[in-house]
Design brief:
Elements: H1 15-26, H2 28-33, E1 39-43, E2 47-52, H3 55-64, H4 66-76, E3 82-87, H5 135-146, E4 154-157, H6 164-175, E5 181-185, H7 186-198, H8 202-210, E6 214-218, H9 227-242, E7 246-251, H10 263-270, E8 273-276, H11 282-299, H12 308-317, H13 322-339, H14 345-351, H15 365-376, H16 380-384, H17 390-406, H18 411-417, H19 423-439, H20 441-456
Parallel strand pairs: 2-3, 4-7, 4-8, 5-6, 6-7
Antiparallel strand pairs: 1-2
Helix pairs in contact: 5-6, 11-12, 11-13, 15-17, 17-19, 18-19, 19-20
Length: about 450
């Protein structure tokens, strides 16, 4: 893949070789569908910057493949400890050079490593899904975007994945049409501060942050410690407020709960409009799911057709955040792409096991053995015996198979739980059951029933 940007590429860092390794590791289908979309931008001392065309593609790659991508990169350069993504909206499909467009309404820190700006064209007020839990935050955000400095500062907080960054982005997207907007994360603000000190460019740093109409800082809770940096932020904050510029902040907690941030800064935050986003209610979760399904179906040829029963189930069980809802949908979409069909409810319970809000029992091999014996109407002593009668072998194989797929135990550990059987016996049992599942619907239905019993203590719902 050719890089579309003019950057200084480390001659010892060959992205094309890494791409070939990624194709070999993940397979052609995943590579062509997702990883080929990654464009290498630049390498720093211990991390690399890459870009993709949309936030959706970035979130999909990060949630599914990032750890393995990083492991692959480290094979060629052990110094790399992280991969950073940026969204390239390919505006006008023009090549980007290192100059700053002086006519732009969005400000940058000149000569910055990232030419950093977080405004995403795809996150606007129009596509923000509204419910009772976020309506106040939505309405307040719209007011801020319509009447500058009426609520100043505007402080928005919630748990992770609730949509606060979406609202900040929507405000920036609306205001940048007429105002000069700077949108940056607290971590990136600190990075630029330290970099400016080291390069003796504090004047440039101050000019870029104080000469803006709107300053939006995401995840302000990370701006902790570092007294010199907080001092500079405090003066920047005051300067902007005094001249009537709008300051907009987000955090995962209210101002008075911020840690290692100066009391005077927390007091200033509390002096504006402080609004929180509550956990999404069931109706909002269902509405979000339906909206995201529509978005996916517009993007891809493989249509995601999920029944109301499945949508209701996911909405009812995943309650903690919108991000987890979207992550669950991404997993289901991946299953659909691989198997060319949507998963049934039983399969969804397995795919989303770590996300579901179901009251699960602790899964142990002993528990699996007990339930399998009860299902096949044999005693545990019979199952664990050395007898090879057919009516004992099949339950034993099923129990071993379920132990393999539902626990993290190794093959030797599973063998020991079945009267010290060899790990090769475990492998044989797993392969036998996998073959039987394809040939015998009765076995398949029985295993689905047992999985439900083991995981959720529920009857088969399929």
């Amino acid at each position: 893949m050719k890089n579309n940007l003019n950057v200084n590429i480390d001659k010892n860092f060959n992205w094309e070789i890494i791409q070939k390794e990624l194709r070999n590791h993940f397979g052609n289908e995943i590579y062509e569908s997702w990883l080929k979309k990654i464009v290498f931008q630049e390498k720093s001392n211990n991390f690399i910057l890459v870009s993709v065309s949309t936030r959706f593609i970035r979130d999909w790659i990060v949630s599914r493949y990032l750890d393995q991508i990083l492991s692959t990169i480290k094979k060629f350069n052990k110094e790399i400890v992280r991969v950073e993504f940026k969204i390239d909206n390919k505006i006008l499909n023009e090549k980007v050079d290192n100059k700053i467009n002086l006519d732009s309404k969005i400000s940058f820190i000149k000569d910055s490593f990232l030419q950093y700006n977080r405004i995403d064209q795809n996150k606007s007020f129009d596509n923000f899904v509204i419910g009772n839990s976020n309506k106040l935050a939505y309405e307040a955000s719209k007011k801020v975007s319509e009447k500058l400095s009426h609520y100043n500062p505007f402080y928005l907080y919630s748990g992770v994945g609730m949509g606060k960054t979406h609202l900040l982005n929507a405000i920036g997207l609306k205001l940048k049409q007429e105002k000069k907007v700077t949108f940056i994360s607290a971590e990136r603000f600190m990075y630029q501060f330290v970099k400016s000190i080291r390069s003796n460019e504090m004047v440039k740093f101050k000019d870029n942050f104080r000469n803006t109409d709107v300053l939006i800082i995401d995840d302000i809770q990370f701006m902790n410690g570092k007294e010199a940096m907080q001092e500079e932020f405090f003066h920047t904050f005051n300067s902007l407020i005094e001249k009537g510029s709008q300051v907009i902040l987000s955090s995962d907690r209210p101002p008075n709960k911020l840690i290692k941030i100066q009391e005077r800064i927390k007091s200033r935050f509390s002096g504006g409009l402080v609004v929180d986003i509550q956990n999404p209610e069931y109706e909002l979760r269902l509405k979000i799911l339906k909206t995201k399904v529509e978005d996916l179906n517009l993007l891809y040829n493989e249509k995601l057709n999920l029944s109301d029963e499945i949508l209701n189930f996911i909405s009812n069980e995943i309650r903690s955040s919108v991000r987890e809802l979207v992550g669950a949908l991404n997993r289901i979409a991946s299953f659909t792409r691989i198997y060319s069909r949507a998963p049934n409810l039983n399969e969804i319970k397995i795919i989303l096991k770590d996300l579901l809000n179901i009251n699960e029992t602790k899964i142990t091999i002993d528990n699996i053995q007990t339930l399998v014996c009860k299902y096949f109407k044999i005693s545990k002593n019979e199952m664990l015996s050395s007898r090879r009668s057919r009516y004992l072998v099949r339950p034993r194989q099923v129990a071993i198979y379920l132990s393999k797929i539902l626990t993290t135990k190794s093959l030797p550990e599973i063998g020991r739980e079945f009267s010290n059987r060899d790990h090769t016996t475990v492998i044989h049992s797993v392969k036998t059951v996998e073959k039987l599942k394809k040939e015998n619907n009765e076995i398949l239905n029985g295993i689905d029933y047992l999985k439900n019993q083991i995981l959720y203590k529920k009857e088969n719902e399929i």
